[in-house]
């Protein structure tokens, strides 16, 4: 591994890291030498993954402001720094707009958007003190275009993309970089009900969590030292063209 790709000595928090794409981020960052803190509501899976890798697990509901303080304070006390935060925890819900309840709307915005905001805010003081940091916010191709029935999800992922830009502008002078990743269709629990056959993907297959590993490593490490406020699309080319029936 070259120096720019190495994360040796760095400390990374990955929300929703117990399974799915978050697990792939955890494995990639761990493989590059970082100490990874898996922050998730899934205690069983989170502990098991942490034990397998020699990583840490912290129970965290990303919508809980006080829990963020507790988790970040704990990481700083034990490891002395937070160099990388991957705001990955997310949920999806869907309904035609006439049936899209306020409860559904509030639920998806709370996790995907407010959770990301709280995470960014929680790590900034430590990153400012260190004079460096990389925050990686997980948006979606639904942060770039509309999608039938996914009203709250789409709104939340556009907002995550926007929050990423305002933070990048504000925090650049402090040495903190903030970028978003926009996955396409990736096979996880979240997408089990989606038929991959209905989507036109130029690379001719749905993605798997490991397809995101290279992007998170690039954005976390020094290879991207001059990269902030960007949006990296990892979708097999799905949003590159105009879909035709
Ligand atoms: P997933 O398999 O459902 O994993 C999401 C993880 O986040 C789960 O462990 C989940 O736990 C956890 N989580 C949910 N709510 C949480 C909360 N309030 N606090 C802490 N953790 C919470 O989903 P995924 O497919 O890996 O998606 C990961 C991220 O990528 C999400 O932000 C998603 O929007 C984004 N994304 C996914 C795709 C895709 O095709 N899969 C495409 C674009 C973007 P529970 O199971 O208990 O809820």
Automatic annotation (TrEMBL):
Gene3D superfamilies in the record, alphabetically? NAD(P)-binding Rossmann-like Domain (3.40.50.720)
Keywords from the named record: Oxidoreductase
Return the SUPFAM superfamilies for the record.
Answer: NAD(P)-binding Rossmann-fold domains (SSF51735)
- Describe the family membership recorded for this protein in Swiss-Prot or TrEMBL: Belongs to the short-chain dehydrogenases/reductases (SDR) family.
> What's a Gene Ontology MF term here?
androstan-3-alpha,17-beta-diol dehydrogenase (NAD+) activity
Q: Which PANTHER family match?
A: 3-OXOACYL-[ACYL-CARRIER-PROTEIN] REDUCTASE, SHORT-CHAIN DEHYDROGENASES/REDUCTASES FAMILY MEMBER
Q: What is the lineage of its organism?
A: Bacteria, Bacillati, Actinomycetota, Actinomycetes, Micromonosporales
Q: What is its EC number?
A: 1.1.1.53
The organism named in the record is: Phytomonospora endophytica
Q: What is this protein called?
A: 3alpha(Or 20beta)-hydroxysteroid dehydrogenase
